[in-house]
Amino acid sequence: MKRNSNDFFKTDLTTWEIGPYHGSLPAPMRLKLSLDGEIIASCQIETGFLHRGLEKACELHSWKSVIAYADHLDPEAAVFGELVLCLGVEEIGEIVVPARAQCIRVILAELTRISSHLAYIVRIARAVGSETIIHYVLRDRERILDLFELLTGARFSLNFLRFGGVCADVTDGFIERVLEVCEMIRIRMKEYNDLFTFNHGFLKRSAFVGTLPTSLIRACGMTGPNARASGVNFDVRKETPYMGYDELEFQIPLGQGEGGNIGDVHDRFLLRLREISQSMEILKQVADRVPAGDFISSKVEKDYVVPPGEAYARIESSRGLLGCHVVSDGKEKPSRVQFRPPSLAHLMAVPELVEGIRIEDLPVVLASLDLGVAEADR
Amino acid sequence: MNTGNDQISWIVSWCRAIGLTPSNTPPWLYALLALLCTFCFVVVPSGAFISYLDRKLSADLQARVGPNRAGPGGLFQPFADILKLLQKDTQKQWGWRENFWLSVHTMALYSTLAVLPLGSVALLVDTEMSAFLPFWSALVLGLGTMLLGLSQESVPGWFGGIRVAAQTLAGSFPALVALLCVGIRAGGFRWSVLANSQGFSPWSWAVFANPFLLVAFFIFVMSGLVLLAIAPLDGGLSMSDIHGGVSSHLFGRRLSLFRFGRFYGFFLWSVITVVLFLGAWRLPNGFTHGLLRLEAYSVLAVFELVWLLLKTFTLMLLIVWISRVNTRSRVDQITDFSWKVLSPFSLLALVGASIWAGWRAF
To answer: Which pLDDT belongs to residue B308?
Structure first.
């Protein structure tokens, strides 16, 4: 919906550059906007401010240390980077991961998904200026970080996965606490809904705003919750199951346009809430069936060197399809580690998506895309 | 000074203590001292009190602790904030335009101190037009804020200024019409007339006098939030896309001046709402008459002030509470709401209140 008042009134467009650091941006990036009044006529995006040379760093370190780098791919959802790298290496080395280790990995991955989605709610709430929900959600997210600390000793940047399993076995009472947290979040979801989802003010800010058309999703290769909110039914956990996801029962929620259009900001928000519920279902199932046994494959020695070969692993991270191309030439360091972060596709969609919206909606639309600039810039 | 009120004696009797008598003191000095007293002993402490309560209550609502370091229970936090802001200085050179518009904006705001209705004894100016003077200030305030924003020569300032102006215009119409509704019932726009048409008991308050005034009350409160850009309808001043608009270029002393000005606007509007709709400063009749018979004007002034401020603070905290659990609306939504919802309903309330008043007159 572009308005052409500048043609009608013969007025000039205003140019406005925001970034790389600005309150309305979810992460460092620069937006060059042309404004027609308060409507965005066009937008150019510049990223790369968080480039750390992560993939190159992977080539300079031993296989074991690379896990710590993969962990930094996306600081907010650290486990997914580790996981996709481990899956790639295990495919090359034909390492069989013990069932117990798989269960621990699924628990970690789904807890990370919940925590990342909770952080997403915080960012949306901040964008629409709703302070209270921010504190409520952060309080609940702390409980998940507590679980990470209990299991791995770290709240962020866990560095817990290993080729062929995980670093340590679960401690006593961990599984019970996971279930406790699930129950707590299930109760709190009602609170979030009352405060936020069905709040008239939030609906006014999010419904019919920033609608993501299917054509744009396909053009940019967008995946994950953003694509599913627009009705694109694609989830790696169902398409090419890994880590035993095929044995678990869960649904893939799709956007239904309850507040406004299918694929608007409200749909993207609602879809995250539903994904949190599905993740809790998965956690409950896994918690019931953690088998006894090793937590790491006995094949992986301390100074394990990956045999020559290459593999491409892909998983469903909290933001979408996360791919990792690992190449080994049989030496102690990787020959190439390349990530396919989902946020890159989301960033590509930004210029077209924000055209025609008001600048007041810009922070809301950007927050609703869940842009992980750290993983896109890597 | 024509006060229209011969009970201005509170400041005269206070001044006698420091050696000023009506024979050696010009009236303008009395007026100046009265304004200073009002500002220093009512407005500033109210600001500190409300900002502390706001923070503590919001913290309680939001499952966190709130200020707890400065003084017992964080009680001195507002003073610590002010001291910190006063020490800071601006990073950029200010042009004369920005200084000029900041002072215009501030003067417009504090000119209303003269008409601030704080009690039957403490009234400084009580004319037929008293109730309209705060509107004039609010409009000048809107204009001053807009020009302050425009003079900053930055995109946030520009958009912030324009948005504030749009909100001010949108909010002033329904607010004025709602004021007319009360005036029709009371039969005048003097603060004393408006207050005396109500009583101590809630059932004698203007808000419950008839259904149209109840509507007018809600319209008056909401249009005030729009007019002065107070949370939750503070889109013009606080949207995150423009970093808070006009205030984004203010630092240190100027920021504290601006922020306190915004608080004063909120306070002013709440006081006026209480005076117009919620029984003003009226105490039980027997109590007031008893004190008047004893000629204990200062005691009466204090009681009236405390009762008025109690209601004002309750109203302010209610608004703060609502703003804490709601999202911030976009400016175009706020102005739409004001023009398309508040304005028609205010006209409806005006027609209804007029008919009601006419009916009662016969």
So the answer is: 92
For chain A, how are helix, strand and coil distributed in percent, rounded to 5? 50, 10, 35
To which H or E segment does residue A313 belong? strand A309-316
Is the CB of residue A202 less than 8 Å from the CB of residue A195?
no
Selection from A73, A110, A89, A107 nearest residue A297 by Cα: A89
- Which residues in chain A have Cβ-Cβ distances shorter than 8 Å to B331? 360
User: How far apart are alpha carbons B59 and B284 in whole angstroms?
Assistant: 36
B55 touches chain A (CB under 8 A): no
Nearest Cα to Cα of residue A43 among A362, A368, A377:
A362
Q: Please tell me the distance from the alpha carbon of residue B23 to that of residue B31, in angstroms, as a whole number.
A: 15
Would you say B279 and B199 are in contact if contact means Cβ atoms under 8 Å apart? yes
Q: Which of B235, B240, B160 is nearest to A23 (CA)?
A: B240
Output the pTM of the full model: 0.86
Q: Which of B214, B238, B192, B222 has its CA nearest to residue B348? A: B214
In chain B, what are the domain boundaries? 94-361
Give the Cα separation of A107 and A148 in Å (integer). 10
* Alpha-carbon span A298 to A57, nearest angstrom: 28
Please report where in the chains the tokens 């491409």 appear, as a residue: A312
Q: Which position has the token pair 């024509």? A: B2
Nearest to A199 by CA among A254, A295, A148, A133: A133
Residue of A nearest to B325 (CA): A132
B chain contacts of residue A204, beta-carbon cutoff 8 Å: 327, 329-330, 333
Give me the pLDDT at residue B188, please.
Answer: 86
Give me the residue spans of the domains in chain A: 5-46, 54-377
Q: Residue A97 corresponds to which amino acid?
A: V
Give the H/E segment covering residue A326.
strand A321-328
Residues A312-355 have pLDDT tens digits of 999 999 999 999 999 988 888 888 999 999 999 999 999 999 98
**Identity (one letter) of the amino acid at B37?**
C
Q: Which fold has domain A54-377?
A: Cytochrome-c3 Hydrogenase; chain B (1.10.645)
